[in-house]
Amino acid sequence: MLSFTNLSVLVLLAISSIQVLAQNCACGYKDSVGHVWREAIVSTFTQDAGALAAVNADWLISTDLQGQPTGTANIQYVAANVFQHQDALGLKASAYDNSGSVKSAEIFTKKHDILYGSFRMSAQVPSVPGVVFGFFTYINDTQEQDIEFLSSDPDYHQHVYYTNQPGQLPNGDVDRNSAKNVVVQRADFTRFGIHRFDWLPGATTYSYEGTNEADETITSSTLVTKNVPTAPSEFVLNIWSNGDPGFSKGPPNADAIATVKYAHLYFNSSSFDVAKFNAACSAAGRIAPCNV
Ligand SMILES: *[C@@H]1O[C@H](CO)[C@@H](O)[C@H](O)[C@H]1NC(C)=O
Ligand SMILES: *[C@@H]1O[C@H](CO)[C@@H](O)[C@H](O)[C@H]1NC(C)=O
To answer: Which domain holds residue 127?
Structure first.
């Protein structure tokens, strides 16, 4: 058994290593394009403490019922569908039980004032048909930028939808300048790969980097400059189905699971403004930003 003294030492060590980590990046995070971000949410779902500990630190789990006038079923978000799966985070849309709603999963950041940043996840897409898997910023239906995967697409393992909402023109047609339907040749999204977008004033750059079964590195990048959000937002991951034959299809007849190893969000927000950031960076001796 640990003595009280040993336990105290361990706790002190743990606290001081957290402080060192935080201090190391007191001057922010510099991304591969050279942009500096003041804050980060680094959710490592493969950590020893478990995926749900990483969720609980920075995210909330949705439990609301969303009525779906255009679908054949409603969406019922349930906490149980956000779970430890293998060595990572599982997000599940359950096999449909004909109850009128599909049990689905969603987490969103406690912070809802994220404005610009670089957002990445390492994930495997679900392969059971009839669900949507999303990684996106959101504040309302016209201030939203999405990465979405539709598991009913025959080529779902290399097909991704990048949308700065609204993705439709007023006449209802798809707006090809704000909604990009991208097939990444030779990619395999059922393997862990990095799905990312970089949100800057006037430009969202969506990208992917992963490997396929032949061990080739596959990359792709898509720039969208229309309908780039300008409002402080929250960040969301979800998986759902409403049985809409035009989009999610389904509902799924087996459990559909997205597996996420990490979500790394580097961003600016109004609650940690330039003055607070500069003071923290000065106090840390104006060290170099962390490269991310
Ligand atoms: C969405 O949010 C923006 C920015 O706050 C606001 O201007 C716009 O009216 C909102 N749109 C809707 C549909 O609520
Ligand atoms: C984010 O914050 C950094 C540090 O304050 C600043 O240099 C940068 O211009 C900000 N980025 C955007 C897109 O506002």
So the answer is: 40-272
Neighbours of 23 (CB within 10 A): 15
Q: Is 231 in the pocket of ligand 1 (CB under 6 A)?
A: yes
Q: Report the residue among 140, 230, 234 best suited for mutation to probe ligand 1: largest number of ligand atoms under 8 A from its CB.
A: 140
- CATH for 130: 2.60.120.200
Q: What is the pLDDT of residue 23?
A: 44
Integer Cα distance of 42 and 140 in angstroms: 24
Judge contact between 147 and 195, C-beta under 8 A. Answer: yes
pTM, 2 dp: 0.92
Residue 75 parent element (H or E): strand 74-77
Does residue 73 lie within any of the structural domains?
A: yes
Residue 98: per-residue pLDDT = 97
Ligand with the closest atom to the CA of 139: 1
Question: Which regions of the chain are under pLDDT 70?
Answer: 1-23
Q: 237: CA distance to ligand 2 center in Å?
A: 24
Give how many domains the chain has, as a whole number: 1
Q: Is residue 13 part of a domain?
A: no
Ligand 1: which residue has its CA nearest to atom 5?
231
Query: What pLDDT does residue 136 have?
Result: 98
Confirm whether 145 is domain-assigned: yes
Ligand 1 and 142: CB distance under 6 A: yes
**Per-residue pLDDT, 96:** 98
Following DSSP, what letter does each residue of 217-260 receive, concatenated? EEEEEEEE-SS---S-BEEEEEEE----TTTT----SS-EEEEE
Which residues, judged by CB distance below 6 Å to any ligand atom, belong to the binding site of ligand 2?
A: 28, 36-38, 116, 200-201, 268, 274, 277
- The answer to the question of residue 162 being in a domain is yes
pLDDT recorded at residue 24: 84
Ligand nearest the Cα of residue 113 is 1
